[in-house]
Structures are given as C-alpha cells and as structure tokens.
Amino acid sequence: MAVAAFAAYHGTLLPGLDLGDTASFQDAGGSREITPRQAYPLYFFLANIVVWLAGGEPAHGMNLASAISGAVACGLLTWLAIDLTGRATAGVVAGALFATSYTFWSQAVIAEVYALHVVMLAAALIALLAWGRRPASRGRLAAFFAIYALGFGNHLMMVLLAPAAMLFLATTMPGGLRALTAPRVVAIAVLCAAVGALQYAWNFQSLWTSPDPPPSLLEGLRTFWFDVTKSDWRRTMVLGVHEAALRPRLAMYAFDVRQQFGITGIALALLGTGALLRASWRTGAMLVTAWLVAVIFAYTYNVGDAHVFFIPSHVVVALAAGAGAGLIVEWGRRVPAASAVIAIVLLLYPAWRAYDTWPAVDRSGDRRAEALMADLAGGLPPERALLLADLNWQLQNALDYHGRHVDPSLAFA
After folding, report:
1. Cα Rg of the chain (Å, integer)
2. How many helices and strands in the chain, by DSSP H and E?
3. What is the pLDDT of residue 3?
4. Count of CB atoms situated within 10 Å of the CB of 50
5. Facing residues of 235 across strands?
C-alpha cells in the first residue's frame, strides 16, 4: 500500500515552487538553521535529508519529502487496520481509502507538515495497541510515550490524541487510573516529554545567532514560546468560530467527509465503528474519542484552511471503514466463494475513488508560481534595478524563495 500510494503521489507531485505556507517551507528547505516561528524541527530535519539527497532546488525535495511521508502514512494505516481487525482486506481498504482521500492527497504532493503528522499519529496508535496486548510492559509503554513525544516535533496537533490515549491507558492498565499515575509511569512520561522537547533546541539556538538576540534568557524563552506556539494566532483561532457560523459549519463537515470517502465509505465507517466497539470497547471508545476531539477542534478552529485540520479525524474514519469492509467479507464466507467476490468489489471502490480524485489533485504540470515570480522579478539586473514589492504574505513567501534559491543576485525589498 505504501508503494502504491507513493506511485500516486509521485505521479501528481508539484514539481517546484508554490505560494503561501508551502513556499515558506520550501524556502527553509535544506537550511541548517530554523527560527522559532518556523517551528516543526522534526519535519525540517527529515525533509532536509530528502532535499540533500534529491539535489537541485529545495522546492522539489520538500515536495518529495511529503510524498514519501504520505506513502509511509498509508502503509502504517494499513498495518494498523489489520492490527485492529485481524483481516487483510480491512487493512487494504482502510489504507487505500485514506490514500485516495482528497485532502490528504492534496497535502502529500506539496511541502506541508500534515503527511508526517499522520505518520506520527499512526505510529503512536500502533505502539499504544501493542502496549494494550501486554499492559504490564513498561518498555512498550515507554515506546508509546517516546513516539508520541517525538510527534510534537512535527506538529503540536499531536495533543489532540491525548484524551483518547489517556482513556485507553486508564481503562486498560492493570490497576486503572491509580497505576497510570504511579511515580514510575509518570517519570517515564516526563522523561520522554523532556527528550522530545529537546528537538526545539534547534529553533531556540537560532534566537541567539540572529542579528538582534534577546536581551535576557527570560525574554528569549518568552519570545520562543510566543513564536513556536503561534500565540498571536491561537487567541483568535482556537474556539474562535462565531456562534452564528457554527450551524453552517455542520454542512461544511458533511461536505468534507463525503468529499474524502463518499457515501459508501461513510456507510462502511458506521458499520465498522460498531464492529470495533463490539470487538473491544476500550479500543473502540479510544478511536471514537480521537475522532470526536479532532472534529471538534477543526470545527471550531477559526482559520481559512480548516479542511486540513480534519485530517486526523479522516484517519479514524478510514480505519473504521476498513473494519466495516472486513466485517462484510466475514459475512460473505457463509456462502462459498462469495467472500472473494465481495473483497474484489470492496477494493474496486477505492480504486474508483483514486481515478475520480486524480485530476483534482494533480499538480504535476503546475508551474504557475514559478511563472508568476519570473514575470514579477525575472531579468532585473541587480546593478541597475531594485525591486520594491508590496505583496500579501502568500506572494511574499514565493518572492523570498525566488530571491534566495532561483535568482540570488536579485535586489529586492
């Protein structure tokens, strides 16, 4: 499934520069220094490896890093669905439905952090379920804590998994909540969190090498926290949707989930949710909680690109749809040869979804951002011309990239 997903993402990959946040990520690609505002140290560390290996302009390497992460994410989700159900068909349907979902596919072909976020989310769930089979194992618990803490180096949205994980840990651990708060368990969690936080030392040190370093350590910590957590954004965005807009947003989410999986995929997910709850109420409740928290966060997040914040909820829907497909195949075994036919039909559905979605997400011939920058800044001799540009942030990010990586001699402000 990972190989198939990579083939799709590589075939529709944006070849070079884009606008907006993507241009900002591309501009920082390959750099040995990242600022607190740029954040995402795990993302930049892994993406930089791809940039250096791929060679050429960093824009392509950063896009390629997303395709690789997206493929790994789909492979891990396939593994996770098989782990949840014990059925190969469930894994393939879950992985294929998620791989062909519109929003995730659109993020896996450009430089963005969401593909790697799903990698860390899926890896954390795999580790958590592995611990659930041997809840007395401190090593497996430490593995989950370590993966979970590492995920914060890519995106702070990992915190959305905390309620579901705590519920599963508290209801599965021998001794319950008291055992979960035992000193040794707390010490393991704190140690993993502290080591995971060290990833941001890369961002923090750039404050002191900047032309205008903070006057004191306390001021540096304050600036670092403000920039990494985007405090200025959070004040108006988290739970920032006006109450008058909440009802229309229900229609937005209904459209979003249909866009990703179609009515058939939603029906499979509803069927699979019941199957997961019957098989293990603890695991089922954990996944339902993870879905609910992710949906509520994105639903109330006052931002223009709210659709990308629904991606963690899409993970749960895809897993549930896989479980539903596995259950239908199991029912088909009552009739000779029926299960094979049912499995083929179920697998044809995500194949059709891929065929239908491909044209909408195909960025392989998209050179618009590069052409726009060439029109704006191309051919200006730095000895005789200074480009003064009053641009919105999406265009400015692209111009910054152009001036740094395409035409370093360009004089602009």
Report:
1. 23
2. 20, 0
3. 98
4. 21
5. none
Quick one: pLDDT at residue 271?
97
Question: Whole-angstrom Cα distance, residue 151 to residue 4?
Answer: 25
pLDDT score recorded for residue 305: 81
Contact by Cβ (8 Å): 298, 306: yes
Please give the Cα distance from 87 to 241 (Å, whole number).
Answer: 41
Residue 78 has a CB neighbour count (10 Å cut-off) of 27
Q: Which residues pair with 76 in a beta bridge?
A: none
Q: Could you tell me the mean pLDDT of each successive run of 10 residues in the chain, 413 residues long?
A: 98 97 95 90 97 95 98 98 95 98 98 98 98 93 97 95 96 89 94 96 89 89 88 76 84 94 97 96 97 94 86 98 95 85 94 96 97 92 90 94 94 92
Both tokens assigned to 59: 């824009």
Query: If you search the block for the tokens 């791809």, which residue do you land on?
Result: 50
Task: Point out which residues pair with 115 in neighbouring strands.
Answer: none
d(CA 295, CA 315) in angstroms, rounded, equals 11
- Residue in this structure with the two tokens 């890369």, named with its chain if needed: 202
19: number of Cβ within 10 Å: 20
CA-based angle 324:144:196, to the nearest 5? 130
Query: In which residue are the tokens 């949840």 written?
Result: 84
Q: What is the pLDDT of residue 41?
A: 96
| Token pair belonging to 331 | 């029912």
DSSP state of 142: H
DSSP string, 338-384: HHHHHHHHHHHHHHHHHHHHHHHH--TT--HHHHHHHHHHTT--TTT
- Alpha-helical regions (H) of 210-242: 217-228, 231-237
**Distance separating alpha carbons of residues 230 and 129, to the nearest angstrom:** 32
Task: Determine contact, residues 214/220, Cβ cutoff 8 Å.
Answer: yes
Residues in the chain: 413
Residue written as token pair 């001699």? 409
153: phi then psi, degrees, rounded to nearest 5:
-75, -15
Look at residue 134 and give its three-state secondary structure: coil
What pLDDT, on the 0 to 100 scale, is given for residue 162?
Answer: 97
Q: Cα-Cα-Cα-Cα dihedral of 393, 396, 397, 401, to 10°? A: 180
Place of tokens 């390497």: 61
- At 382 the pLDDT is 86
Phi (first) and psi of residue 154, to 5 degrees = -100, -50
